[in-house]
C-alpha cells in the first residue's frame, strides 16, 4: 500500500518513526513521510521518501543550556518568566496549528494515499481530514498519553478534558491505534478506543554484545537533558555516590539550567556510539519525574537501549517501568525525587551486578525491535485485506 506518515517531530532524530517506516517498506509498502527539520539529502531506506515542513521555534529567550547555578533573578526576570508561564499553552497550540496549516498543501499535493498514519495527536486532525477525502485508511500512532503529559506553562484542565474527548472522536475513525506501552493502551481502551496495539520503543538486537564488566565504572544518563527527567535528583545522588562517576550525555533543552555539582557531561552521540558508551560505564540511568500520568505509564527509549547494549538499569519506580524491570530482572528501582533512594538503588545494583547483567542479556530475546516490528507489519497486513475506508472527521474542537 501507499502510506503517508505525518509527524511534527524532527524526523532525522525520531528513531521510532524511522524504524516503523523502514519495517513497513521492508514488508513491501511505499512510505512517504511529511515531518519537520529534515536535513537536505536525508535518506531513510529504500521505499521511503521524506519531505520537511518547518515550525516556529517557540517562546525561547536566550541560549540557556547546562550551567552551574540557577540563572538570573530580579523583578524584571520574574515578570518575564510569569508572562511566559501564562502564555505558553496558547503559544504551543498555535505553533502546532500553524504547522498543520503549512503542511496541508504538501499533504494534498503528495496524495492520494491508501493509508494515512498520524504520529501523535498534533497531526491526527490533519491526517483524519485527508484520509476522509481520499477514502483512505487512518492509523493513529500515539507515542505518549497526549493530554496527560507534564507540560510547561500554566495549568489547562479544561483544554485537557476537551482534548481527550476530541482525541477519541478522531481516533475512533482509525482502523486501529498504536501506542508504546500496555499501560497507555489500557487507558485509551478505557476511554473508548477498542482496537489499540502495542508497538514498544525497542531497538534492533545487537549483532554482538561483549561480555559484561566485572564491576560497573559509573552511571550514564543517555537522553534528552531537560525538565521532567528528574536530573536534580541525579545530581543530588551523585554527591552521595562520589567518587563513583555519574555522567549525562545528550542534547540540552533550550533554557534548561542545572547545577551540575559532581556530574560529568559528554557530547551527544549516535545510537551505536551510545551502545559502546553505556557498556564502558556499565549502568544506565532511566529517570522520569512522577508528575503526570504519561510518565507513570511510559516506557522510555533509553530503557530498551540499555537492553540492546546489554547494560543493567537503575530506573524510576513508576508502574509501567516497574513491571518491565522486575519481570525481566533488568536492574533496580528508585523513588523519583528521592536522592537517598537513588543512591540505595545504585549501590544495590553494584552489589548484585552479575545477576542483573545476566537478566538484561536474557531479556534481549523478547525486548527487541524484531518482535515489535512484527506486530506493526502484521497490523498493516490486516489493513491491506480490508475494503477502502470512508473516514469523515468530526468538526474541530475549539
From TrEMBL:
Coiled coil: none annotated. Keywords: Glycosyltransferase, Transferase. This is Glycosyltransferase. Gene3D superfamilies: Glycogen Phosphorylase B (3.40.50.2000). Residues 16-200 form the Glycosyltransferase subfamily 4-like N-terminal domain. It comes from the Bacteria. GO terms for biological process: carbohydrate derivative biosynthetic process. The keyword Glycosyltransferase applies. GO terms for molecular function: glycosyltransferase activity. InterPro entries: Glyco_trans_4-like_N, Glycosyltransferase_grp1. The keyword Transferase applies. Signal peptide: none annotated.
Amino acid at each position: 500500500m501507499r502510506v503517508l506518515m505525518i509527524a511534527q517531530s524532527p524526523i532525522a532524530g525520531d528513531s521510532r518513526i524511522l524504524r516503523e517506516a523502514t519495517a513497513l517498506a521492508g514488508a513491501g509498502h511505499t512510505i512517504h513521510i511529511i515531518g519537520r527539520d529534515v536535513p537536505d539529502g536525508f535518506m531513510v531506506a529504500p521505499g521511503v521518501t521524506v519531505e520537511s515542513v518547518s515550525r516556529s521555534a517557540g517562546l525561547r529567550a536566550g541560549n540557556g543550556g547546562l550551567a552551574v547555578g540557577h540563572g538570573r533573578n530580579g523583578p524584571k526576570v520574574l515578570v518575564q518568566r510569569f508572562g511566559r508561564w501564562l502564555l505558553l499553552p496558547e503559544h504551543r497550540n498555535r505553533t502546532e496549528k500553524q504547522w498543520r496549516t503549512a503542511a496541508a498543501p504538501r499533504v494534498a499535493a503528495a496524495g492520494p494515499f491508501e493509508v494515512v498514519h498520524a504520529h501523535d495527536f498534533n497531526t491526527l486532525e490533519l491526517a483524519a481530514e485527508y484520509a476522509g477525502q481520499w477514502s483512505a485508511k487512518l492509523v493513529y500512532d500515539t507515542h505518549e498519553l497526549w493530554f496527560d503529559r507534564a507540560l510547561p506553562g500554566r495549568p489547562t484542565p479544561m483544554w485537557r478534558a476537551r482534548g481527550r474527548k476530541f482525541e477519541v472522536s478522531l481516533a475512533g475513525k482509525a482502523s486501529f491505534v498504536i501506542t508504546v506501552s500496555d499501560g497507555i493502551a489500557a487507558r485509551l481502551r478505557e476511554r473508548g478506543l477498542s482496537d489499540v496495539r502495542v508497538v514498544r520503543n525497542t531497538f534492533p538486537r545487537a549483532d554482538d554484545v561483549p561480555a559484561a564488566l566485572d564491576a560497573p565504572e559509573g552511571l550514564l544518563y543517555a537522553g534528552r537533558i531537560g525538565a521532567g527527567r528528574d536530573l536534580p535528583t541525579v545530581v543530588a545522588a551523585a554527591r552521595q555516590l562520589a567518587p563513583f562517576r555519574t555522567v549525562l550525555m545528550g542534547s540540552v533543552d533550550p533554557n534548561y539550567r542545572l547545577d551540575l555539582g559532581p556530574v560529568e557531561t559528554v557530547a551527544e552521540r549516535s545510537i551505536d556510539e551510545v551502545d559502546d558508551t553505556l557498556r564502558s560505564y556499565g549502568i544506565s540511568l532511566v529517570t522520569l519525574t512522577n508528575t503526570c500520568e504519561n510518565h507513570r505509564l511510559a516506557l522510555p527509549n533509553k530503557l530498551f537501549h540499555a537492553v540492546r547494549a546489554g547494560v543493567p538499569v537503575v530506573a524510576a519506580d513508576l508502574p509501567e517501568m516497574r513491571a518491565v524491570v522486575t519481570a525481566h530482572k533488568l536492574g533496580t528501582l528508585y523513588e523519583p525525587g528521592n536522592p537517598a533512594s537513588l543512591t540505595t538503588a545504585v549501590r544495590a545494583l553494584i552489589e548484585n551486578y552479575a545477576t542483573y547483567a545476566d537478566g538484561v542479556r536474557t531479556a534481549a530475546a523478547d525486548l527487541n525491535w524484531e518482535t515489535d516490528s512484527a506486530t506493526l507489519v502484521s497490523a498493516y497486513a490486516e489493513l491491506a485485506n480490508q475494503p477502502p475506508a470512508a473516514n469523515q472527521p468530526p468538526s474541530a474542537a475549539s
